[in-house]
Amino acid sequence: MAEIKLNNLTKRWGDFIGVDDQSLHIKDREFLVLLGPSGCGKTTTMRMIAGLEEPTAGEIWIGDRMVNDDLPKDRDVAMVFQNYGLYPHMTIFDNIAYPLKVRGTDKSEIRPRVEKAAEQVELTEFLHRKPKALSGGQRQRVALARAIVRTPKVFLMDEPLSNLDAKLRVTMRAELKHLSRALQITTVYVTHDQIEAMTLADRVAVMKNGIIQQLGTPDDIYNNPANLFVAGFIGSPAMNLINGSVTDGMFVTTGGTRLVPVKSPDREKAILGVRADDMHVHEAGQGDIDVTIYAFENTGESTLLTVQWGKQRVIARGDRHLRKDQDDVVGISLNQDHLYLFDPETEDRIEM
Amino acid sequence: MTGKQKKQIFGAIQTALILIAMFIMLVPIIWIFLAAFKSHVDVYQLKLFFTPTLENFSVVFDDPYRLGEKLLNSTIVAFVTILFAIPIATLAAYSFSRFSMRGETLMLVTILATQFVPAVVIILPFFVMFRDIGLLDTRLGLILVNLAIVMPFAIWMIKGFIDGIPMDTEEAAMVDGSSRLQVIRNIVLPMAAPGLLTSAIFCFIIAWNEFLFALILTNKDAVTLPIGLGLFKGEEGDLWNLLSAAGIIIMAPMFVLALMIRKYFVQGMTMGAVR
Ligand SMILES: Nc1ncnc2c1ncn2[C@@H]1O[C@H](COP(=O)(O)OP(=O)(O)O)[C@@H](O)[C@H]1O
Ligand SMILES: [Mg+2]
After folding, report:
1. What is the ipTM of this complex?
2. Nearest CB to A83 within list B168, B178, B191
3. Considering the entire predicted model, what is its pTM?
4. Residues with CB under 5 A from ligand 2 (ion)
5. Which atom of ligand 1 is found nearest the CA of A42?
6. Is residue B46 assigned to a domain?
7. Does ligand 1 have an atom closer than 6 angstroms to the CB of A39?
8. In a domain, B126, yes or no
9. How far apart are CA B255 and CA A258, in angstroms?
10. Collapsing DSSP states into helix, strand and coil, what is residue A88?
11. Count of helices and strands (H, E) across chain A
């Protein structure tokens, strides 16, 4: 068990910057999720920790050792690859046993440990099979068992659930969460799926273009997004972002509607952020503003109303019993305790 | 004409063409097969029915032909060639496949280019060189030449197979605690095994059939089977029955290997990873 420290880590290929001078301190036993859109440098960061990619600059510390010059095998990490990276010519037993065998574990110890790991991920009955004869979810569990069969200092997982179908992903997510709580090993988990990040993480690092945009607990990044990117990336549906200005303590949309009071000095340009859940739906005339429904969706557990608001469309979440139709007019009011204001130039959040 | 009739006619033409092609390819082989079991007098008659004899096969092993020695030479040369060629080519191919080196493409192309140099162009320098260092008419000399011939081929072929092994699998092994050599031994070799076997067989065939260099660089001790065929000339002309018997001895291993390749080649091609 160990903490991980990344000090001013940079990865460049020619002119292209994959990871740009990033520092990150991952605590002992922490489950840290690197979250960001595809191509933002998550995998690169993880591969540098594993020793599969050499940093252009910066230091990587695992525990009290700088591991920049250590081979992957000497870093004492276990990794779950996106495509699992199973050994197709070995049985499941041998796949799981490989890290033990290659590290010279006592022969008598190998079998019980493999069996225990297989049991933890419910693979016991498949131990004699080859990976080819397993389903995607089972292969995923083999990769997991191979990681947990040892007690490494660090777990690294690169989008381990992304190749599974939606239903299995939810089940495996819960299993992962359960397992990680039980094992208590420092984990770095890469994903582009914000729900995985929110549900699994102790802390989330949101990345974009090789730069960590915000580091915080799931609560933190959901409720206090540091900038427009984080606000738009976290949450489903994405946060509504409304263009306008602040005039006399009121947010005024570009269309000229005086919407809500905001605690901010006047500014010519501002973006108001409000989540679908903080937009309340009323009958026409009873909200702050009347709008026309562009699309009405019923997801079962709630309803989603995409409404036309001047030139923009925003999404509001309604009660699951609400029934409306396209082109109906409804009233909308905003929950004034959960509004966000952003500077469109810097994209940073404006405190208020 | 209906579509069905068209199809039938097309099918008939196809079958006919295949039969013609097969006939053209097989006739010499059938002729050799028949001749090998004929007596000298029967050879020049295109008889399909004759009293078969095994005598030719014993004559070729006797004085003065002594095909056994040539068979031994061919076997040793071909086996030792692949014994060295495949491991060396595998390591080279792995490096080309997995590491980026300065001038990598240039090296790969150069290796391939050596295959395009006509043998007759370099055979004289070889002769002079081997004469000076005493490698003329030795198996070692032939092995060295054959290595030079099969290596480029083996490197390219094996590189193709190693390219097909996903990087993920190797990286997983490295993170799991393997050194680079352990990765090669535990992961790459088993996964590339069908490919390695296919390459080995191809190289064996090339070395086994190699004619030109053996013709120029050997004359007595290290003569190989293909050169041995030239022995069967008598006062009465070419001894076709003996030539055919020797021909069958040369071809027999090829048939077996061709069958093996067929099986492993498909395996080698479809091998690949579990995703
Ligand atoms: N070996 C490489 N050479 C050049 N560019 C690379 C290499 N590996 C990754 N990249 C680029 O670096 C960026 C970050 O990649 P990656 O870390 O894999 O992103 P992701 O966040 O999707 O995991 C991508 O734009 C990718 O194209
Ligand atoms: Mg990635």
Report:
1. 0.86
2. B168
3. 0.83
4. A 43
5. 21
6. no
7. yes
8. yes
9. 89
10. coil
11. 8, 21
Residues B173 and B233 in one domain: yes
- Assess if residue B77 is contained within a domain: yes
pLDDT in tens, A29-40: 999 999 999 999
Strand A267-274 and strand A240-247: the pairing is antiparallel
- At A115 the pLDDT is 96
Residue A170: Cβ within 10 Å count: 15
Which residues on chain B place their C-beta less than 8 Å from a C-beta of chain A?
166, 168-169, 171-179, 182, 186-187, 190-191, 272-275
d(Cα A11, Cα B18) in Å, to the nearest integer? 59
Say yes or no: B192 and B246 in one domain.
yes
The DSSP bridge partners found for residue A313 are A308
pLDDT digits (tens, 9 = 90+) for A140-189: 999 999 999 999 999 999 999 988 888 888 988 998 999 899 999 999 99
pLDDT, residue B275, reads 34
Which CATH number covers residue B251?
A: 1.10.3720.10
Which residues are A267's β-sheet partners? Answer: A246
Nearest residue (CA) to ligand 1, atom 10: A18
Residues A95, A86 contacting (CB under 8 angstroms): yes
What is the rounded CA–CA span in Å between residue B192 and residue B169?
Answer: 13
Closest-CA distance of chain B to residue A114, Å? 14
Paired sense of beta strands A31-35 and A203-208, if any:
parallel
* DSSP codes of every residue in A25-53: EEPTT-EEEEE-STTSSHHHHHHHHHTSS
3-class DSSP state of B266: helix
Q: Contact B114/B151 with Cβ under 8 angstroms?
A: no
Q: 3-class SS at A281?
A: strand
Contacts within 8 Å (CB) and 24+ apart, B15-18? none
The interaxial angle of helices A136-148 and A92-102, nearest 10 deg, is: 20
Query: Ligand 1, from A9, A13, A54: best to mutate by most atoms within 8 Å of Cβ?
Result: A13
